[in-house]
């Protein structure tokens, strides 16, 4: 129980999450600047686990890095669900080149010039989806709400207007509403 002057943080979930995190290109360890985000997830959501995606983020050929990384993400999701069952809760998080990897893995190839990747099998990406409407484009999209419960990307160089997964923005009061 909180004493005077202490804040209590309400718990909105009764589950843990497995975060698959893909960093941007360059040198350094597998998480690089995303280690702080990983630490927050592990601290704030009890029982959670994480994986820094070991794709070849230092590869000279970024197209090959994105394609290989996307296939690796799909493989990790499939293996995690196989070992944890249908109650698995997965968050995919990407920064820069890692954001490209995550979106290609989930949605399939989205941009001209990227090497082809099929979207992840509907067993993982369509399970328990809710319909939402993008406030920006007005398009109906699907939000993954069962196995992959969160997709968080920063600095995706391939993101563009009109893509059907664009929902909300960083303006206070906007975003996804179900």
TrEMBL record:
SUPFAM superfamilies: alpha/beta-Hydrolases
Cross-referenced Gene3D superfamilies: alpha/beta hydrolase
Gene Ontology terms, MF aspect: carboxylic ester hydrolase activity
Superkingdom to which the source organism belongs: Eukaryota
InterPro entries: AB_hydrolase_fold (IPR029058), Cutinase/axe (IPR000675)
Keywords annotated in UniProt: Disulfide bond, Hydrolase
Name of the protein described by the UniProt record: Putative acetylxylan esterase
Source organism per UniProt: Phaeomoniella chlamydospora
Lineage of the organism: Eukaryota, Fungi, Dikarya, Ascomycota, Pezizomycotina
């Amino acid at each position: 129980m909180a004493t005077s002057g202490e804040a209590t943080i309400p718990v909105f979930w009764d589950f843990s999450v497995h975060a698959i995190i893909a960093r941007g290109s360059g040198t350094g360890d597998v998480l690089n600047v995303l280690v702080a985000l990983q630490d927050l997830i592990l601290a704030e959501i009890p029982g959670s686990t994480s994986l820094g995606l070991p794709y070849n983020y230092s590869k000279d050929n970024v197209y090959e890095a994105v394609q290989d990384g996307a296939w690796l993400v799909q493989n990790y999701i499939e293996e995690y669900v196989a070992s944890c069952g249908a109650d698995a809760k997965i968050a995919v998080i990407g920064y820069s080149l890692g954001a490209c990897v995550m979106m290609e893995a989930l949605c399939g190839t989205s941009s001209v010039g990227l090497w082809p990747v099929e979207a992840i099998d509907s067993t993982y990406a369509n399970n328990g989806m809710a319909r939402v409407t993008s406030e920006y484009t007005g398009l109906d999209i699907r939000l993954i709400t069962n196995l992959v419960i969160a997709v968080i990307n920063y600095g995706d160089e391939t993101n563009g207007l009109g893509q059907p997964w664009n929902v909300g923005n960083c303006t206070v009061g906007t975003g996804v509403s179900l």
